[in-house]
Design a protein that fits this description.
The chain is mostly helical. Helix content is 82%, strand content 0%. The radius of gyration is 22 Å and the shape is flat.
Length: 201
C-alpha cells in the first residue's frame, strides 16, 4: 500500500523467492493456455445452439434475482462466520451478479449499471482480501522464507485483512439491504419497460 516501501523493497528475500516461483509457473503456462482456449471454443460452439429466442425480460430478471439471493445468503454466512472460505464463496457470487448486470445492462441502463458498479466495488475489496488470504497461506506454509521477514509480513497481512473485512461487510450491508423479493419486483418493473423503449427507439 505504501509506494515508498515498494521502492525500497521491505521484503527482498520473500519477494525474490516468490518471483522465482512465478517464473517457474509461467514456463508451464503455455500448455494450460492452449487447453483453456480449446475449452472456451467448445463452450462458444455450444452457445450457438442455445434457443435464446424464447427468453424474455421476465426470465432474465428472475435469474438476476436468483444470483442476488445467493449473494445475500453468502453475505449472511460471512457475517456469522467470517472465515476465508466464506469470503471467497461470497466473492464468487458477487462476481456472478457483476457479470450478469454488465451483459444485461440494456434492459435498463440506469438500474443495471448501478448494480454492476456496486458489485464491482464490492468485488474489488473481496478480491484484495482473497489475494491476501492466498499469500498468507503461502507464507504460513513456507518454512524456507526468512523468519524475520515472514513474521513481519504476516502481521501486516493480518491487519490489512481485518480492515478489508470491515470494509467489505459495510459495503455488503448496503448492497444487500433490499430483500430478494423486493429486488426482483423492482428489477422486473424496469425490465418490462425495455421492449417498449426498444421499439420506440
Amino acid at each position: 500500500r505504501d509506494g515508498a516501501e515498494k521502492e525500497t523493497g521491505s521484503f527482498p528475500q520473500i519477494t525474490a523467492a516468490l518471483k522465482t516461483e512465478i517464473a517457474t509457473l509461467a514456463e508451464t503456462f503455455g500448455d494450460q493456455q492452449q487447453r483453456t482456449a480449446t475449452t472456451l471454443q467448445q463452450i462458444c460452439d455450444r452457445l450457438e445452439g442455445w434457443p435464446l429466442e424464447s427468453i424474455g425480460s421476465d426470465d432474465l430478471s428472475c435469474e438476476i434475482k436468483k444470483t442476488y439471493r445467493r449473494g445475500r445468503k453468502c453475505f449472511r454466512c460471512v457475517g456469522s462466520d467470517p472465515n476465508a472460505e466464506n469470503f471467497h464463496s461470497w466473492r464468487k457470487r458477487v462476481k456472478d451478479l457483476w457479470y450478469q448486470a454488465q451483459i444485461l445492462q440494456n434492459l435498463n441502463q440506469t438500474i443495471l449499471c448501478e448494480i454492476a458498479e456496486g458489485a464491482k466495488t464490492l468485488g474489488h475489496e473481496l478480491g484484495d482480501l482473497h489475494d491476501l488470504a492466498f499469500l498468507r497461506e503461502r507464507l504460513e506454509g513456507g518454512a524456507e522464507f526468512p523468519e524475520d521477514e515472514r513474521s513481519l509480513l504476516l502481521g501486516l497481512i493480518s491487519t490489512r485483512e481485518r480492515e478489508l473485512e470491515r470494509v467489505a461487510l459495510d459495503l455488503g450491508a448496503r448492497f444487500y439491504a433490499e430483500k430478494p423479493g423486493a429486488f426482483g419486483r423492482r428489477l422486473l418493473a424496469y425490465a418490462r419497460q425495455w421492449p417498449e423503449r426498444r421499439n420506440s427507439a
